[in-house]
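User: I'm new to structure prediction. If I give you an amino acid sequence, what do you actually give back? Let's try with this one:
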Amino acid sequence: MQRLDEELARFDQLAQSARKIQLTSERNLEKAARAINDAAESQRRVTEHIAQLIEAISNARTRHDAVAAELLITRDEVQARAERFQTQLGRFGALGKEAADISAQVRELGAIKDKPNAEIVALLTSVKERMAGVVAGAVTLAAEADAESMEDLARQCDSLKQQVQSALNKVSLLRDKLAATLA
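Assistant: Good question. You get back a string of structure tokens that encode the predicted 3D arrangement of the chain. For your 183 residues, that looks like this:
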């Protein structure tokens, strides 16, 4: 750009110089012809610089357009990934709510003293089935999250599965112990 500016200034100066020469003598005519030739050469260089500038602008536009197109693709990928992640987090939240509801139900069962063991065994069987559903859901969601490289979610699902599986084992032991007293 600077070379173009400099050459434009030189071209302007040569053109003005050629115009100012009085064409009153052979020497001045030769001087004017040289100034015109020098100005024409300068004009050729200006044209080259302009062509280079146009090519640079064209290349910049092409590069910009390519980067902008890639950015749009990336934006769409990020948006799709965020939506998928939100969907998976919603599923995880539902599993967590189910686990919390089961935990509340187990606490209520612990407070029951006056029901016959057969009723408690039936309630514990229901709780056990719900817990197994949460464990299975956590395993499935963890596998999906792992396959989709959602590492944090996969770890959270695995943690939930382990917690519920541990509680399920305790409920199963209690249920089996109470069921054995009925037989």
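You can read the tokens as a compact description of the fold. Here is one thing that stands out. The chain has a mean pLDDT of 92.
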